[in-house]
Fold these 3 entries.
Entry 1:
Amino acid sequence: MTQIIHSVSDLQKWSMEQKRQGKTVGLVPTMGFLHEGHLSLIDTAHAQGADAVAVSIFVNPTQFGPNEDFDRYPRDFEHDRILCEQHGADVIFAPEVNDMYPAAVTCWVQEEEISKGLCGKTRPIHFRGVTTVVTKLFNAALPDLAVFGQKDAQQAAIIKRMVRDLNFPIRIIVSPIVREADGLAMSSRNKYLSADERQRALTLSRSLREAKEALENGTRTDALAECDVIRQKLTASGGVVDYVEALDPETMLPVTSGSQRPVLFALACAYGTTRLIDNMKVD
Amino acid sequence: MTQIIHSVSDLQKWSMEQKRQGKTVGLVPTMGFLHEGHLSLIDTAHAQGADAVAVSIFVNPTQFGPNEDFDRYPRDFEHDRILCEQHGADVIFAPEVNDMYPAAVTCWVQEEEISKGLCGKTRPIHFRGVTTVVTKLFNAALPDLAVFGQKDAQQAAIIKRMVRDLNFPIRIIVSPIVREADGLAMSSRNKYLSADERQRALTLSRSLREAKEALENGTRTDALAECDVIRQKLTASGGVVDYVEALDPETMLPVTSGSQRPVLFALACAYGTTRLIDNMKVD
């Protein structure tokens, strides 16, 4: 039976009790509207040794810009609860906004290198909100390990950097992207897509896969030039490209040489009002 | 016997072991060169219920500006060790700079309201360094309670705000200023003062006490005007005033009305190259 906890102090008590019993606590931070990507994170937490798993479900207002989709972000708590139950989550941490932000925040956690590029350019306050709320979630759940999705590759790299720089005693695990059968990376925001947009959005994963194949089999050799190829395909599919970049997978900073290996291609592209992200690593 | 620990991971292990034994862990963060003010913080940690007390001794480079006294800040580890031993500290956490900062920090903790005024004006990166290193120390010592000195009133208020905003499961205790017999607030930096400067620096505590007496016995009634009186006395004593302010003791923001009560007078003033701070509350 998955227990539902709303307050920070109750979650702290729960976590400390688990530890007193010698259990390893795992945290899976989510914004809810769970899909198979999220569920794989819960499974990963168990597989990586968590005896007690908390899934947080919180649509965090401080990581949404004023013109973003905070209000319309999809929510379905009852469905989420059933899925958490099925995947053996011990606790759902489902705070209200007032539980997490009883007063206006004046103390922020901010990463200032990895967060500058990619999504950080078009979403200037996003990662400050993410690192701050994840710090709050870490201090609430006091986990031994926490699982994040590779779908949000920049976020995962920022969280790892945060844990390194601030000495959180937490092991960060990054779990692979889960895709629909046709290749679309799973995202709660896929729900926004019309049938037509959904079809055109397949260009994200397809263009990434084609770039990966071309570089890995040697048909083409320049990762930087490949970004232009991807960009053209996205534009041709009716997408409005935010960025397509070739990154060092460790530092998440842009590669300087087109022939550098390994490389992570990361992109953001909008169809209609729906902005999607995806990424793929080339070895 | 006080145990000396140098690495973050060893301190985390020590703290988790204390908790497994059901002990309450207390942390006293210091920059070393301990005086009776620091020792009162250790005593307070015990008095407030800490069964296992860690004293951190770390002159934190990230809270010093480029033209400040990081290099000449006084250090005397062996003396500190004896004092910690005498006051029953269980652990001294004495990391090297490389233990705390193995790589350049790109993720900072920054308070953006209380930190703007007072010392934050003349020391723009100071409090960012303080909140970041205290977060690191909290995540290293994992304390149940931590004790700070009221001498650094602005710092104590910022740390309380940080704990509130970031949900650290830590009780923050602020311990009263300890003064020399003649009134000078104890500070490791008092060592910098020449005999003459030391004498003139008594004006800090004397002018604060005179303001407190005048307002409490009704001789004078305007706290804002009292700031000018203090400023004049400091200047007359040969001090170079950085600030003298009347603050709301809760918010640490400047009071808007001269008749507001209670009020905290806080000041910073330099004699020669030595910048000193002091504060006093008027009820």
Entry 2:
Amino acid sequence: MTAQLQTTNNAKTVLVTGGAGYIGSHTVVELIENGYECVVVDNLSNSSYDSVARLEILTKHHIPFHKVDLCDREGLEKVFKEHEIDSVIHFAGLKAVGESTQIPLRYYHNNILGTLVLLELMQQYKVSKFVFSSSATVYGDATRFPDMIPIPEECPLGPTNPYGNTKYAIEKILNDLYNSDKASWKFSILRYFNPIGAHPSGLIGEDPLGIPNNLLPYMAQVAVGRREKLYIFGDDYDSRDGTPIRDYIHVVDLAKGHIAALKYLDAYNQEEGLCREWNLGSGKGSTVFEVYRAFCKASGIDLPYEVTGRRAGDVLNLTAKPDRAKRELKWQTELQVEDSCKDLWKWATENPFGYQLKGVEARFATEDMNYDARFVTIGAGTRFQATIANLGATIVDLKVDGQSVVLGYENEEGYLNPDSAYIGATIGRYANRIAKGKFNLGGKDYQLTVNNGINANHGSIGSFHVKRFLGPIVQNPSKDVFTAEYILVDNGKDTEFPGDLQVTVQYTLNVAKKSLEIEYKGKLTAGEATPLNLTNHTYFNLNKPHEDTIDGTEIKVVSKKSVDVDKNVIPTGKIVDRNIATFDCSKPTILGPKDPRYDYCFVVDENAKPKQIDTSNNELTLVAKAFHPDSKITLEVLSTEPTYQVYTGDFLSAGYTARQGFAVEPGRYVDAINRKEWKDCVTLKHGETYGSKIVYRFS
Amino acid sequence: MTAQLQTTNNAKTVLVTGGAGYIGSHTVVELIENGYECVVVDNLSNSSYDSVARLEILTKHHIPFHKVDLCDREGLEKVFKEHEIDSVIHFAGLKAVGESTQIPLRYYHNNILGTLVLLELMQQYKVSKFVFSSSATVYGDATRFPDMIPIPEECPLGPTNPYGNTKYAIEKILNDLYNSDKASWKFSILRYFNPIGAHPSGLIGEDPLGIPNNLLPYMAQVAVGRREKLYIFGDDYDSRDGTPIRDYIHVVDLAKGHIAALKYLDAYNQEEGLCREWNLGSGKGSTVFEVYRAFCKASGIDLPYEVTGRRAGDVLNLTAKPDRAKRELKWQTELQVEDSCKDLWKWATENPFGYQLKGVEARFATEDMNYDARFVTIGAGTRFQATIANLGATIVDLKVDGQSVVLGYENEEGYLNPDSAYIGATIGRYANRIAKGKFNLGGKDYQLTVNNGINANHGSIGSFHVKRFLGPIVQNPSKDVFTAEYILVDNGKDTEFPGDLQVTVQYTLNVAKKSLEIEYKGKLTAGEATPLNLTNHTYFNLNKPHEDTIDGTEIKVVSKKSVDVDKNVIPTGKIVDRNIATFDCSKPTILGPKDPRYDYCFVVDENAKPKQIDTSNNELTLVAKAFHPDSKITLEVLSTEPTYQVYTGDFLSAGYTARQGFAVEPGRYVDAINRKEWKDCVTLKHGETYGSKIVYRFS
């Protein structure tokens, strides 16, 4: 995707119901790539919000999410009121054929009422375009007719299970509604054949609850060891290898079919609107054995299987005739079963348990259960856990052996208080001061809002600490390790700085090592250059349960060299020594109730030439160590950065008071953007990548 | 119907949804005649509670009614909690084909969700038997097949309008639900052909809102002058007279089909339950012209008609093959189109505007909107109006030229107060005192509970004033005249008196004459004989808006002869004169603030032999006249009765105080049941009819 798309103005907004689910989530990716805005509604009854959080990272796009059941008219109407919805793609619905035969009432109630409420609100809010997620199941056994394989849209319908009956009933509803007022409606009914695969990124895929009903997810679970073996239901069909033939379609192809349908509706300008069905299938049938072999090849595993008897209701061949979609929607499948297997395997191996990870919890940080205001805890229930907010990608809490060692607020209100002291937050675009808020880049003068004496501090009014980061993608790549990745898209009207910036904040929590690594990456997606100096502003109190202050904390740092500043706290150009214990001192500096007071920018190595940092190569330097004799907790701060601000929290406010926490903020030089000798290290040019790492390690 | 059925114990309770509607109400009659109890649920969106009130009179049976929309799960669940429901007959649903093409969403939402909620509650409350009101509409145009006229149940379905689609979807739901748990369900799907006609009583019938969609109601409206002429859509079909052929079925036959189906389910004892469809039709087709001629004959009117073009969707012939119902349900139609036309004509002429009458209003007398606790006003908005409660068939209010002239309570709470003074109520079984509560009938001694000194008064603990009367049937038989008929079934455990009694109270309000006639009729449905002495206990205050007392009221009566009583207020056998002005006096008795005090039983004619009264022959006698000089309102009390109690309200309580109203209560002799000379007139024997009339006339 391109930067242009991320800043599309006047983009049409598509309401995607069931957008957290398998096909819905893949369609959201394609919608955003095609310049649409998406609003996702999902009751999460069979899906996870994590898929939406991952979509945000995947698309670099904010995706408003509402946990609403479509049967809840009031809840759904709020969504119609809040967003100017241009069209609807309706995925939401219960979809397991087998389950539908067990609890048919729930299927009818949920699927039909949900659709009716949705259509009623569309009518009320004058939204006319609707793409409906139907299914080839509506045809039932098309082999009952002599000439209906491959199946054309004209094939008489005859679903054979409650799930199919709900899809059939909804198709009838759409036809009847269209006929009641043809000028007002454009309905596209998409009849899916067998969607398989996953997004090639490996970030989203099918995450079925319980025993998978479908071949591919079942094979994937056998392959990752969650199931013993594959059952093949009958090898005595009249096919090339005796197994039944189905029309498998890569979910990304399927998702693109929705874009084609939506664009068709967008472009359709007849007076009468339309209500029309399109098959979405490849037109090519594959046998079960063929798919089995493709998956074994993709995974490199010879899956154990057993052929058992035919399954009731199964028939030889259900392949789509996709000609109408090709002709009218200009859409056809591009990917093969082999692609599907490869992408599924990537998804399955990178997410063996889907979205739901043990050791990860989330809670809402606002009363209105806003999903953008979540606090996600990684390492939950372990000896070391971190809680991170979308707001500011802020470290809300760190717990060492169950004991909180940082300052933080219970909910977003605390962080949004204008007097709050950037507690735990990501600081950007420019940590620390820029003199008078002025700088020159590429021969052009820039003026930031002055927000700190006569200077601009911590990015001024565009400070990252009150910006909402996208995501996170939370993963558990190996035992004891959790990652959470956030992205901030800091563009145009959101900033006084030049250039469109994307910042990734990747938290890596290692429970065994009790370390939290923060990796920042920045790059410009538009513009020539920007100042950039990122840090994290966590305040530590290593004795928090016992004392409300840092009193008694012992610290040592790597160097006592520090940037000299004038009365406006702007560097004079000199480097001076501060009175602080370094690692080679036998005794640490002990922070007392009032003294010593630090708010200095220390320099790791005054001889090193400051420059942009490649975090993949750069070594981490231990810059500070703190210890409290009561709690016996030691904190080590390591980083890739040339400086580190030490601040004893003497001006804490907004619920906190002086010296309740201290901060060690690795970063780049104060006002470096205005200093020739330091300017390079805080200037991010187009094509470059800004990188830095900070590690908080406890013992 | 027989008396036995009315007292059926352990009768199975059938929940009838849509029971206030056309087919539902006729089915309730048949259900009760077949010994079932009914609970009616209806949202009254296209029907009137009056049909249920009429059903109560028609069946002499209480019919619990709940105004609940089936989509309101909470409301419907209350019904399941309150009643032990054995089976459900489900009529509720929107049913106009034409309308369904205009507002299909409403049809789907209402019909399908309503059914789902109902089935969910049946599942929850383990109710397994369900008779569904489907329609031949599900077949669509059966003439599209070569051999499907008459239409058998095996005919493939294919509804052609949203209404039919909702019926089809519900049939699918029933099939799927049955297949999900065969042991738990017995479903009968009844596919109606063309129901016509009305109950032969003329009390219930089809009452369509707006322009009728169907031939018969349309003809009826033409016949009574509400529509100009009949339109016949096409006379160029290939039928005997060129008009299309349909299978018309008398609604009473159709209703009986439901009983047959329900009994079939009741008797069905296979392990697996069932879900089965039955056509309900006659198997005989009639053309439009044939029906037209039958109706013209029945009504004696040559209806004007015009043949116009064919109507879209109409086909030549849709006649049922009813063999399956005949074979399995042992049901077939018994009535002919001619019967339907005759009964429809009776209904139409006796109720030219259906149930809804101008000048009739109703309100709830309890906070829970209990339909049994309604206050019905007849003559509403006219110069003379009466409000009557089901409780006690009580006169709650009488207004003369907008001015209330009687005492009464705002709601039922007042009337149920044990200290209330029978205000406005029907008094029975025995108005006035029975000495010591004892009497002997047929050689047997009876003891009533003593509730008044050492006597039983006003029927004692079984007093009619706190019994709920069935009905009413409200009618407007001619200009300015409104009638309201109530029935009390006073049986077995409800009474200490011998015999099962039915009492009818018929109010006839004549606005022009400003008279309210009350006619009582009593008869025994079981037992040999009972004491019976009925009256109405209205308290008048002719100057109510100005004064809270009867002070200044001038009265005259027909006779000063009065029953002498002992210290226990029981007749001594003597007749004495009281000090009261009679009609031949020049001056009236003036009721003062404290005097004179009356609570005497006056005798109209001491020489007349008291006996049972035939109200159709008996002359009314003017027994009392009252006038207030401030209001200038005159009251005349007339009756068929041998005595009249005059009571100056000196013991009024429960919200009222002494002398706020006076009563003139025509009736029979005090303690007559224990006096040989009077006993006949208060002894109702089996086969006899007790009759009496009271008229309150104002000027």
Entry 3:
Amino acid sequence: MDGNTKSVAMPLSAEELHRMDAWWRAANYLNIGQIYLSANPLLREKLTVDHIKPRLLGHWGTSPGLNLIYVHLNRLIKKYDLDTIYMAGPGHGGPALIANVWLEGSYTEFYPDITRDEAGMLRLFRQFSTPGGVPSHVSVPTPGSIHEGGELGYVLVHAFGAVMDNPALLVAAVVGDGEAETGPLAGSWKSIDFINPTRDGAVLPILHLNGYKISGPTVWARHSDEDLTKFFEGQGYKPYFVEGDVPEKVHQAFASVLETAVLEIREIQSRARSGASHGRPQWPVIVLRTPKGWTGPKIVDGLQIEGTFRAHQVPVSDVLTKPEHLQILDDWLRSYKPEELFDGAGRFRAEFADLAPAGNRRMGSNPNANGGLLTVPLKLRDFENYQFKFEERARQRIGSTSVLGNYLRDIYEDNPHNFRLFCPDETNSNRLGAIFDISDRCLISDILPGDDHVSHDGRVMEVLSEHCCHGWLEGYTLTGRHGLFATYEAFAMIVDSMSMQHGKWLEHAKRVPWRADVPSLNYLLTSTCWRNDHNGFSHQGPGFIDTVIHRKPTVARVYLPADANCLLSVADHCLRSVNYLNLIVIDKQPQLQWLTMDEAKVHCAKGASVWDMYSKQPDEPDVVLACAGDIPTQETIAAAWMLRKHAPGLKVRVVNVVDLMRLSPADRHPHGMTDADFTDIFTQTAPVIFTFHGYPGVIHDLLHGRDAHDRFHVRGYLEEGTTTTPFDMVVLNRISRLHLCLDVLRYVPGALIEHGEIATLCTDMLEEHDRYIRAHFDDLPEIKDWVWSD
Amino acid sequence: MDGNTKSVAMPLSAEELHRMDAWWRAANYLNIGQIYLSANPLLREKLTVDHIKPRLLGHWGTSPGLNLIYVHLNRLIKKYDLDTIYMAGPGHGGPALIANVWLEGSYTEFYPDITRDEAGMLRLFRQFSTPGGVPSHVSVPTPGSIHEGGELGYVLVHAFGAVMDNPALLVAAVVGDGEAETGPLAGSWKSIDFINPTRDGAVLPILHLNGYKISGPTVWARHSDEDLTKFFEGQGYKPYFVEGDVPEKVHQAFASVLETAVLEIREIQSRARSGASHGRPQWPVIVLRTPKGWTGPKIVDGLQIEGTFRAHQVPVSDVLTKPEHLQILDDWLRSYKPEELFDGAGRFRAEFADLAPAGNRRMGSNPNANGGLLTVPLKLRDFENYQFKFEERARQRIGSTSVLGNYLRDIYEDNPHNFRLFCPDETNSNRLGAIFDISDRCLISDILPGDDHVSHDGRVMEVLSEHCCHGWLEGYTLTGRHGLFATYEAFAMIVDSMSMQHGKWLEHAKRVPWRADVPSLNYLLTSTCWRNDHNGFSHQGPGFIDTVIHRKPTVARVYLPADANCLLSVADHCLRSVNYLNLIVIDKQPQLQWLTMDEAKVHCAKGASVWDMYSKQPDEPDVVLACAGDIPTQETIAAAWMLRKHAPGLKVRVVNVVDLMRLSPADRHPHGMTDADFTDIFTQTAPVIFTFHGYPGVIHDLLHGRDAHDRFHVRGYLEEGTTTTPFDMVVLNRISRLHLCLDVLRYVPGALIEHGEIATLCTDMLEEHDRYIRAHFDDLPEIKDWVWSD
């Protein structure tokens, strides 16, 4: 690279260039200090091994680019009073963001002991990647950050989610060229097809091509600018390129391109907001090609470092043992001329510090990066208004999610800028279609006459990408808004890792005092394993429950409402909550309804309770039939009904668990029941047949530590399935009413002898079912009954 | 659409056109029959409700396009003797593939009772989506398929994996426009950057734009051909477009474009293989725009169906109750003129059936889609040759994965076309770099002088996409080759759902008699939670174990070798196996070595055993210290050592579990121990402190059903972590040697009173550690010891 760039304008005066370069040098210097130094922060004396940390951690390679972008954003934030936050896809460049936030003064406001002087600088260095200090990545303790960048791939979805319904916000989203290889990142460029400039803010993606990952070249760095131009234009972007390794030239070129991009975004927004344009605008994107580890050591031990993968982390190692390496480090640090940058007390000189915007315009202090500060609670009508009033208990069917749809419809109506549903093209399929009375699907492309509820103004976010849905919702909630991600149960596992990472963020944020509470991330899993009888085995997988329960008890919440009224109560609770991962699991098909609204409220408040109305002499039961989940509840109540009819002497208690974490011992989860409560519900000695929606291991785990839990016999999804009938699904996995009756006879002492009749009945019916299934296409008339499901 | 297409050549004679159209009509007809009919398959009489299935399932919308592509591929397979398989991204179009495979005769060869006549046709219809019949998706029982397409997004990665080291194979990969919105699909176009035409086969992607998903428009369908051209060209493809809704015109245009694409692929390959070209060729891609549900009902109840989302599944419903709907179905079926297509006995007329290729060239019979037929076992040298011979037990450290690297290096050498490593740019980081002695990283772009072991001929597959790595390996193994996916432990969760889907495939395949055994899919998770002390919380997540153990016992295998010799033994076992998901978890950092090779072989064969050499009077122990995983083993042995020293009267048995599924009751997993074996190892009554690598719930689940498992006290990863020291990680999660000693004193009756000294010692040391951590950057000299880890 020769420092030539594609943009020739020189917008910076010599003085401005000098000051901006000084900021950049200071940030680079502080970067290196964090990686290496435990003393002598201002290099007052020649470096010795006593000044060096015992363990060198941190990522240098990406940092000079991140620093460059930061100072150039500062210029424009000041010039145009921009409301801007910064997301670093290469979040392992943690020291870069920390350095800039310290330079601008935000850091010291959040952490007063990290003062803006030599002592503070030393603490800044020492705390980095040090036990008890701050993590090596851009993480929760980093002011200005809502994106860690530890697991790569999500910077754009977080950025786009943050700007939805956030018209003033501009997110500068740096995409690493390593990150750009991930599937989720590749799939998130399309987010501009869902951004409406009249009501949404804007994202400025900056693809930072520094050529290498940990050790290999990146895919995009080996494609030409022509390729990249086509790639971006094809997706609706207008790309700008800056390339070089001569700082002054890159400063000028980047300043020019960044300003052009920002002005184009403002122009797009002002035209759209004045009604002068419609449709999908051509949003700018910047491609920045600079060397990996730019300005770092060029050669170490005869090997090129700058511009290669060797600059990825610590570009010169063994400084404790190799004097010549220590000399390279000394030279490298001094190349930034720290004495020019910091005064005698270690304070960043005012002439450079003045480049920072003021107050909340500083990217480290922008409230959008601490979204709880901006959170407005949802306006929620009384959920009892939406209740399903049945005429006869356990006789009428309705799709419970369709009842929830009415509730969500009014949330859309009452919260026109504060709530969105995110869903992979399944809103109708999931029976939530009532919301289309108020809002449409969002798409910023041409709308065709045959389209159903699709418009540019729509705020129902449907895209066939669970990654986009989840990531957008994360960005939306972390900037203080509310939402729900509704998806087919099995395909929630596509975002297992995103859920884990967001859960870790929420967990950590609870321990960072200045982080304000943010709305919970709410999941509605529907089209569940038990009722994917039509789609078959690939659509049957309840494993997302396992992912959520592994998060810390401070954030993990799992609800399995069995009917519409319970679902309403649970949803209301979740939508009012903060800082949780709330997982709600319920199928969408018409299903029997069990509880009145009054009963449902009491039950959901308790989280788990005895359902007297479905029990027989529940006070001193011979057996407890417990259930969690809609189909388990159906089969359990049916089994109780069969037992009442065919084994009238048997005392059967029916227990339903709607809040799964209630099963946990009280010392393991805040929702956990005391042992006394647990005994009240499950008795001390009766056998318990527990029928669970998901994998039985979840219940085994939750029950661990309870006395006498060997009397619990857990049934659940056994990874059996195909395209078949709903009833065959419960038979295959042995949770059918017939299996449960047989289990009761097996585990209640003496029951089999006393109630042999029902054992015969159940066995006969299972054989009959087996004949039904095996008869299938040879003898079709007979199987017209095969939808027999309750 | 007016039927105009961008390609004007007319390669088909009138007669050929007629015959191909007839095949297409026949496939469409059979599609609809599968969805609707339970009788009257040849429409000998007017349709009545008695001919209709009781429940209408299946996806019509995508099917006409899938059928069109099938017959056109047949033409070229015959003309050029192509070795071709078909992958349907929109796998919900199951009836389409089944129809074509039946028409070509393959189906009847696999399923003789589905004869090629009227009776067979009726069974074909009746079995579809019927209990006991075949699933609604392209699935394991579908001949010619190695891609279900239930969970969308993976068709290209499967296709590209299938052609690696498979130079004769051409995969026609149909990408749905819904699927194209997913992250994994968007991220897999780049696969051509890793395909070397000299030694790999080719993928021909066909992006099928039919405009709609379940209910909304697709993103790409609303972009122009110009946009798509740029998008594909930017990524190195040469796009061809076919658009229309007039069958004859589309036939001609598609025939022309498909032949052009196939010839270009052959030209690319022949130039590369003759040495006439190098570098990344411009591979063709086809964009096919046809109406959703093409040739289906145009209008039903006044609403447009063909060309809209309403054609997605069953385009005309309620045929049992609405006579006018039944009439529409009758008209629709007759529009294909079944009497022209099938003879009086229901046989597909020979003049049309002759379009099919012969024998194994038929896509339903191609052995690449039943890859076990092609599998050649790996050449594996004796793994004992690579053993680590220590001079003193438990005193020497080595990176166990670096030992494995030597073994893998020789596998690369001995199996130059039959084995690949897939890894997100971490081969060196994961200490497997020895393989670079034999092969390079693969990249088909310009190679720069500074690149390290990167070449066009490289066969080490590094791409920063876990989705690509996993999907490529799936395609590679399903076509009969062998491989290993090595990745950072936490980021394995990115592919949780892919692992689930592949596990389901393997499970189902075991029950399909004609499916031959395929090599296992092997995972090596390294850079584990316990040793991501430097990267912090986002890199600490052992949840992938949970994903694997939820697969059926027939396929789920989990190994936690504690040292290099155990790792070698386990790896050898996994690489020889078939049909499993083999998960191996071990960290990459230098670690203490516990067993000689002879001991390791015995131990791994047992799966779990008492380690006498680390126990004290193990015959009648007061306590069992059990462990699974490298760091748990280290802490457990250290605790045993401390107890021996400070509580010499205590009898301590050390147990190690390398094959996790051994813990399972024998009736739950084929590796499960009998109760007698279990008692031999864990005793009948002694308290067991079980230290586990992952979440404790995994062990709770596996132990469920064992007698007296309340005496097991499981310790594991508690979702605690940050950037800190290795030792602090085990302290934070309470599995440190000090915690384990304290646990022993707590659970062994009377031990605390008898051995108070060690309790004080441990408590003091934990306090000292706490001071270390809290001292951190304020008092750095003191914490030079903070790497204290064993």
